[in-house]
C-alpha cells in the first residue's frame, strides 16, 4: 500500500512553520547553501579543527532551534499547543511525541515569559535541552530563577543542571525556606521528594509491534534504589552460562523480569555521604553520591536500617589501597562513587560503572584509589578502543582528556 503524499502546507498563519530555515545561515566553512563539505576534505582535517567545526555547527543549530521555538511559540499563542502540535505533524511529518513535546516547550517559554532563555538559545549559548530544563523547573517553587539557571546552563550540560535544581544560594530563598520549615517542619528537599512522589507513574502497554513497553517516572530516591537493584541483577545475569551472546540491553531486560517476578533478590548499596562537623560533633550536608541533597529527616530514616561505613580520606583519595587485587573492592567502589560521582566521561550513575585502572592492570597498575576511575560500560569500551588519556589534577578527581591532534 502506497503512502499518501503529505498534506500541502496552507497559506496564511501556518506558513510560520517553515520560516526557521530562512536566512541562509552561515557555518564555519561557509554558507549551508553551499552543500556538504567534501568527504575528502573532512578526512584531511586535524582533530582540533574537526572539533572546532563541530562546535560551530552545534552553535548554529542552537541558533536555528531558537528561531524555531520562537516561531512555534507564536503559533502556540494563536492556535494553542494541541493544534500547533497537530500542524507540526501534518505539515512536517514529525512524529506525535516530538511534536507535542516541542509545542509544550514553546508554550511554557511563552507562558512564563522566558525571553532571556529564547535569546540565549537563538545566540547559540545553550542547547534546546537546556531550555527544556528551564521551562520545566524554573516556574516551580524554591527553584532557581531564569537568570540563575541560564548561568548554570552556559557552563554545564543540561543533564548535570537537571540533577541539581533546588536553589540554595539566594538569601531570600533561605529566609523563605526557614519560615516554611518552622511552619510545616519540612525542608525543601522533603517537599521536593513529596512532589515527585505525587507525580510518580508507571505504565505497561502492548505496542503496535507486538512487544510490551514499560515506562515509569519515579522519585529521585525510589528511582535510584531501583537503578541499583537493576544493576546488581544485571551483573548476576552476566554470570550465567548462557549470557555470552546477550547484549547489555538484553541483560537489562532479563534482569528487570527476574526482579519483578521475584527470581532474584540482589544486594545493592545506596551510598549516602555526610560531612562530619568537628565543631558541633554532628553530620552535615547529607547527599547521595551523585550530589543529590538529602534532608536530615531522610538521612535519619536511612540510617535506621543502614550499614554505616565511617571513613576519613586523604585529600588525594589514596586510602583503601589493595595492591595487586584484580578488581576494586566494594569499599573502594563506595569511595570512587563519592569522589567521581559517576562516570568521569558522561556522568552515568556509579552502579552502571566499572572501576577502570588508569595505569592498566596488565601493565602492573595497582588497584588503589588514585589509579582507579569510574567509567560506564559504553565509555569503558570506547576508552579501550580509542585509547583516551585520563588526567588526574591535584584534587585527585580524574577526568578524561581529549586526544591530541
Keywords for this entry:
two-stranded antiparallel ribbon, disordered N terminus, 10 strands, 405 residues, 15 helices, mainly alpha
Structural features, described:
The structure is a single chain. The protein has 405 residues and is mainly alpha-helical. Helices cover 46% and strands 11% of the residues. It has 15 helices and ten strands. The chain has a two-stranded antiparallel ribbon. The chain has a two-stranded antiparallel sheet with strand order 3-4. A two-stranded antiparallel ribbon has the order 5-6. A hairpin with a 2-residue loop joins strand 1 (26-27) and strand 2 (30-31). Helix 2 packs across helix 4, helix 2 runs antiparallel to helix 5 (115-122) and helix 3 crosses helix 4 (96-111). The protein is globular, with a radius of gyration of 25 Å. The termini are far apart. Mean pLDDT is 79; it is low at 1-6, 12-35 and 320-324.
Amino acid at each position: 500500500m502506497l503512502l499518501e503524499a503529505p498534506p500541502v502546507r496552507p497559506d496564511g498563519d501556518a506558513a510560520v512553520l517553515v520560516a526557521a530555515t530562512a536566512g541562509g545561515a552561515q557555518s564555519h566553512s561557509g554558507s549551508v547553501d553551499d552543500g556538504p563539505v567534501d568527504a575528502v576534505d573532512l578526512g584531511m582535517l586535524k582533530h582540533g579543527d574537526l572539533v572546532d567545526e563541530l562546535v560551530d555547527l552545534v552553535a548554529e543549530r542552537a541558533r536555528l532551534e531558537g528561531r524555531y521555538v520562537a516561531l512555534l511559540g507564536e503559533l502556540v499563542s494563536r492556535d494553542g499547543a494541541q493544534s500547533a502540535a497537530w500542524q507540526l505533524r501534518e505539515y512536517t511529518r514529525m512524529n506525535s511525541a516530538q511534536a507535542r513535546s516541542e509545542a509544550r516547550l514553546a508554550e511554557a517559554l511563552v507562558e512564563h515569559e522566558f525571553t532571556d532563555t529564547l535569546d540565549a538559545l537563538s545566540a547559540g549559548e545553550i542547547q534546546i535541552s537546556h531550555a527544556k530544563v528551564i521551562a520545566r523547573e524554573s516556574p516551580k517553587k524554591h527553584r532557581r530563577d531564569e537568570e540563575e539557571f541560564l548561568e548554570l546552563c552556559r557552563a554545564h550540560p543540561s543533564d548535570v543542571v537537571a540533577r541539581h535544581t533546588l536553589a540554595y544560594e539566594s538569601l531570600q530563598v533561605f529566609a523563605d525556606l526557614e519560615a516554611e520549615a518552622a511552619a510545616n517542619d519540612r525542608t525543601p528537599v522533603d517537599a521536593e521528594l513529596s512532589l515527585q512522589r505525587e507525580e510518580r507513574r508507571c505504565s505497561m502497554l502492548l505496542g503496535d509491534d507486538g512487544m510490551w513497553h514499560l515506562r515509569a517516572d519515579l522519585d529521585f530516591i525510589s528511582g535510584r534504589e531501583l537503578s541499583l537493584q537493576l544493576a546488581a541483577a544485571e551483573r548476576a545475569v552476566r554470570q550465567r552460562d548462557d549470557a555470552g551472546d546477550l547484549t547489555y540491553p538484553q541483560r537489562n531486560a532479563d534482569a528487570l523480569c527476574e526482579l519483578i517476578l521475584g527470581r532474584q533478590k540482589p544486594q545493592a548499596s545506596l551510598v549516602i555521604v555526610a560531612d562530619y562537623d568537628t565543631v558541633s560533633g554532628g553530620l552535615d550536608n547529607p547527599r547521595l553520591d551523585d550530589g543529590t541533597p538529602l534532608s536530615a529527616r531522610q538521612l535519619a530514616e536511612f540510617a535506621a536500617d543502614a550499614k554505616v561505613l565511617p571513613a576519613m580520606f586523604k585529600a588525594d583519595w589514596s586510602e583503601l589501597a589493595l595492591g595487586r587485587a584484580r578488581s576494586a573492592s566494594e569499599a573502594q567502589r563506595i569511595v570512587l562513587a563519592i569522589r567521581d560521582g559517576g562516570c568521569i566521561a558522561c556522568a552515568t550513575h556509579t552502579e552502571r560503572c566499572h572501576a577502570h585502572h588508569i595505569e592498566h592492570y596488565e601493565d602492573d597498575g595497582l588497584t588503589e584509589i588514585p589509579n582507579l576511575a569510574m567509567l560506564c560500560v559504553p565509555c569503558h569500551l570506547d576508552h579501550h578502543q580509542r585509547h583516551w588519556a585520563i588526567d588526574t589534577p591535584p584534587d585527585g578527581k580524574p577526568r578524561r582528556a581529549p586526544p591530541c591532534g
